[in-house]
Sequence to fold (476 residues):
Amino acid sequence: MSDPLLALDDVYKSYGEEQVLSGVSFEMDAGDVDVVIGPSGSGKSTMLRCVNRLTEIDSGDIYLDGDCVTDADTDVNELRKQVGMVFQDFNLFAHLTALGNVTLGLRKVRGMDKATAQEQGYEHLEQVGLSDQADSYPAELSGGQKQRVGIARALAMDPKLLLFDEPTSALDPELVGEVVDVMRDLAAEGITMLVVSHEMGFARSAASDIIFLDDGRIVEHGPPEQLFQNPQAARTGEFLSRLETAHEEE
Amino acid sequence: MPPLPLQSDWAFVIENLDLLLVGTGVTVALTAASILLGFLLGFPAGAVEVYGRGPLKRAVETAGVVLRGTPLLVIIILLFFGLSVSSSAFVTATIALGLRSAAYQSQIFRGALQSVDEGQLEAARAIGMGRFQAIRSVVVPQALRRSVPGFQNEFTIVLKDTSIAIVIGLGELLTVGQNLYQGGQSTAALEIFLTVSLIYFVLTFVTNRSLDRLDDHFSIPGGERA
Ligand SMILES: Nc1ncnc2c1ncn2[C@@H]1O[C@H](COP(=O)(O)OP(=O)(O)OP(=O)(O)O)[C@@H](O)[C@H]1O
Ligand SMILES: [Mg+2]
Fold:
């Protein structure tokens, strides 16, 4: 048996008095797409941010490809080269073109020369369907295009794992589809993804597992069929039916 | 028949235009040197105020408060007559104006660095950039652009405040004007000082226009929303 690609083992995190993660454990294998759902404030973003150490955990361990990455002597920059992140608010570099956003890491972190970086950058923009917008600046792009650049930027580093924190929730409804389509393509290509999202269409069709987080604990963790059709915990069913209603009201 | 006083006084200005132009040259050189010194000290100071911590940050903040709270005239007199930092009036004036400008420029850059949203820095860190590199490659280029309007203001202030160097006898534009008027041609006072004012105005106008150009040149297409 090979190691899981990502493993969280009894992870705790608090902010002051507030316990945000209370003993979170799960594993995912290479190629898995796990979708994290849960109410606002349940700790979803915190959990993702602990994986690439934008947030430091209090106790527990996180393993990437067999290596403990929460050791004090782990080089966080090395870790982050292997774990891409896509943000809710895109966080594109405003002074750089789409191509510049994608190539900055290749040049400054991977040390590639400009020509090679641009060549690879184009390929990644192509992968998200934006090679024709290579020279556009973020402010000239639609929300959906911005998020696709954000995905290309993360992909360009050739990470072992991609983290998505509500990648579509800042988008107008009509722009959600283009981003979800790109994420589906990546899932089909076998890219390992840990996705916080309430896009149930994506979860149903692309998720290997769904993780339901509530109040800093994993309440339920299983394949989509199980959670949607036969939730083990009462709270899971309640949360999912509330999601459905909210969706229908839109 | 003696020429009209008015005519003769303008003639006096024109005759001495070469002296006024030399003074203008000193003013321009003093402005450039002071702004440059102010930038070299003020930019790092602003960065320390935003990203620094501990004693260094407190020292920089305190120096800024003291410099901004002291009249320029006092600074320049103190440096020249009190501390005798240099026997050269030009060097002393550059240090005085440069230090004071650094204190103001640090605030321009501090505001500009803080205005770049935190998320971009986080995104840069998330692709594996170190903190220093992320600040340098992502925050600083945007902050410098946003500093241009404040910098433009500071430039104008320094340019006009170079005239304070008159108190230590530096031969800049105002001093030259003053010397001409005191050298026996006191009837030409109005003409001399109008000319001096006009030269300051032209210098200010030209620098402002050039900095406007710079602002346009470096503006980000589509605006700054990422
Ligand atoms: N940097 C921080 N400092 C203090 N408290 C924080 C910080 N980040 C998160 N929290 C708190 O931790 C809790 C969990 O936050 P988190 O952002 O992980 O939730 P979430 O599940 O992502 O919520 P949402 O669906 O609203 O994004 C919240 O109560 C939040 O206020
Ligand atoms: Mg969140």
Remarks:
- Chain B touches chain A through 26 residues (CB under 8 Å).
- The pocket of magnesium ion (ligand 2) is lined by residues A 44-45, 165-166 (CB under 6 Å).
- Chain B has one domain: 5-218.
